[in-house]
Amino acid sequence: MEEDLDNLLARRVVRWGLSVPAVFLLEICKPLAFVGSQMFLFWGPVAHLLVDPERYDRFVERMASRENWEKLIQRIEEMERKQD
User: What is the reported pTM?
Assistant: First the structure.
């Protein structure tokens, strides 16, 4: 299931042509992964009104770990290479 979320995010980033800015931003923010996930938790009640709560909670859980950020970066780069 986590792999599906990585694929979904990476596919959208590549489709929109935002691979370079997304990877750059993810690399910069990786050290703040835990703090960022806490911010997402704080905004959770509002976000649950706008998006699927289950998917949002899975995203927040995944983004709490730096290793998961690195996996997402690698998936974006892999999809970008395949597209070229």
Answer: 0.76
Confirm if 11 and 82 have CB atoms less than 8 A apart: no
Residue 4 in contact with residue 72, Cβ under 8 Å?
A: no
CA–CA gap between residue 14 and residue 84 (Å, rounded): 11
How far apart are the C-alpha atoms of 44 and 57, rounded to whole Å? 8
How far is residue 35 from each of residues 7, 40, 50, 64, 69, measured CA to CA in Å?
A: 24, 9, 22, 8, 13
Q: What is the pLDDT of residues 38-68, one digit of tens each?
A: 898 899 999 999 999 998 998 888 888 888 8
**Domain boundaries, given as residue ranges, for the chain:** 2-83
Separation of alpha carbons 36 and 49, rounded Å: 20
